[in-house]
Design a protein that fits this description.
- By secondary structure, this protein is of the alpha+beta class.
- It contains 9 helices and 26 strands.
- The strands form 7 sheets. A 6-stranded mixed beta sheet has the order 7-4-6-5-9-8, with helices on one face. A 6-stranded mixed beta sheet has the order 16-13-17-21-20-18, with helices on both faces. Strands 19, 22, 23, 24, 25 and 26 form a 6-stranded mixed beta sheet that branches.
- The protein is elongated.
- The two termini are 48 Å apart.
- The structure holds adenosine monophosphate and magnesium ion.
């Protein structure tokens, strides 16, 4: 006789609930703009100046008055070069009937209304340098206008944005050498599993039967660091209730999040769930995704707790889909969901699953998606080979040529 089980929570429900618990920590710090890549801005950045600050040349050439060029053209006359303005110099107003030699980035002299690039001007040597210009320029040609990048008073980056190499460049461009960002969330990380061995401790040839290397510890730590976290690595915790309780208790002090891998399923050797229930509260456990079903979320004291499944692909994907947005929200980030796109499957997936599946795929040269042949949750090679996942709804088969929802790993790892 089978007992009716409550349907598993959907990923969307689980994520919504998880994010409901993730109130931004609100602690901020000032960091050098040099060090701010990947951090979340805690304040709007308002520009105190125009960028560029004044009209300047986008070419090496000659700053001119168009009307005078047109006149000189009519009489086939050359125009004298009355001054030379290099980047970093301020020129004089343009003398009537003359042009100014000018270089990229140099301010346009008062009175000039266009730049002729040097390739379009024929220099005439002599005691008084001059140029002959073959064609009258358009108004404003090769002039970058003051404020065309940023206007004074504009919000160039909003609070909650995550800084990128380009955005720290922009912040520097408005004169900011320091930025106020969210403090790093403090994350305690540990792995469970008596089978786990650290690389370096036992050589591959000496591994005992049943032993495996701890790979989750490495990618989880790397993903946490990419997300701006401060990681306390508590190592491997034995599969006993006492050790699990002790590790959770210790981790719950002075950390914002306790992140574990393994031991969160239903076997007798899975101690995480009962230990969290004993020390705090479990809010979420199990959801209808494949891989990654056993994911758990709860709280122990002031610390959040997220329990990832032990299978490496399950661990990786539940981190990317659930813990990543959670940690971003703790930092006050506003953009939490990865961008997705529709692409054509260049494979068949004939067996529908009751759970929403995340299939490891790779974009091919035809713009379609190839499937990694082994989709087992233990096969980390699939994530290394792949450059993304197909988010396949529950109950859905895929035929070659179908449009599917693709999430790139670059989005999930950013
Ligand atoms: P568990 O969730 O503890 O039942 O583990 C599920 C599977 O994942 C088992 O085959 C474990 O050996 C494996 N596993 C658990 N933790 C890790 C880890 N840190 N690195 C690699 N494999 C792991
Ligand atoms: Mg285990």
């Amino acid at each position: 006789m089978s007992t009716a089980r409550a349907p598993l929570r959907s990923l969307d429900e689980a994520l919504a609930e998880l994010l409901g618990h993730a109130q931004p920590l609100g602690r901020t710090q000032t960091v050098s703009t040099f060090e701010a890549d990947g951090r979340v801005l805690a304040l709007d950045l308002v520009s105190g100046l125009h960028v560029p600050p004044q009209d300047n040349s986008s070419m090496d050439g000659y700053a001119v008055r168009r009307a005078e060029v047109a006149q000189a053209l009519a009489s086939a006359a050359a125009l004298p070069v009355s001054q030379r303005i290099a980047a970093g110099c301020a020129g004089q107003p343009l003398a009537p009937g003359s042009v100014a030699r000018i270089f990229t980035g140099a301010p346009i002299p008062q009175g000039a209304d266009a730049v002729v690039m040097q390739e379009d001007a024929e220099p005439i040597e002599g005691p008084q340098p001059a140029v002959r210009i073959a064609q009258a320029p358009a108004l404003g040609q090769w002039i970058r206008r003051a404020g065309e990048d940023v206007t004074r008073g504009a919000v160039v980056l909003a609070r909650g944005e995550r800084l990128t190499p380009a955005s720290i460049g922009l912040a520097a461009g408005i004169g900011l050498d320091t930025l106020v960002v969210a403090q790093r969330p403090r994350v305690a990380l540990f792995s469970t599993g008596d089978e786990l061995v650290m690389p370096g401790e036992v050589a591959p040839a000496d591994m005992k039967p049943g032993a495996i290397y701890n790979s989750n510890r490495f990618f989880l730590r790397a993903m946490l660091l990419r997300l701006g976290c401060e990681v306390s690595d508590l190592g491997i915790v034995p599969d006993t209730r006492e050790a699990t309780l002790a590790a959770l208790r210790q981790a719950s002090l002075a950390h914002d999040l306790i992140l574990t891998s393994g031991g969160v399923s239903v076997g007798e050797e899975d101690h995480i769930k009962p230990a969290v229930e004993a020390l705090g509260r479990l809010h979420l456990w199990q959801m209808a995704i494949k891989p990654g079903k056993p994911f758990a979320y709860g709280r122990i004291g002031a610390a959040h707790f997220a329990g990832l499944p032990g299978n490496p692909v399950s661990s990786f994907l539940t981190f990317a889909l659930l813990v990543r947005p959670f940690l971003l929200k703790l930092q006050g980030a506003t953009r939490l969901a990865p961008d997705t796109m529709r692409l054509a499957a260049h494979f068949d997936w004939p067996r529908a699953d009751r759970r929403r599946e995340f299939l490891r795929v790779r974009r091919n040269a035809q713009g379609g998606l190839d499937l990694f042949p082994n989709q087992s949750s233990g096969v980390l090679t699939s994530v290394v080979w792949g450059d993304g996942v197909v988010d396949n709804p529950a109950g859905q088969t895929i035929a070659h040529g179908d449009q599917v929802r693709f999430i790139s790993l670059a989005e999930l790892l950013a």
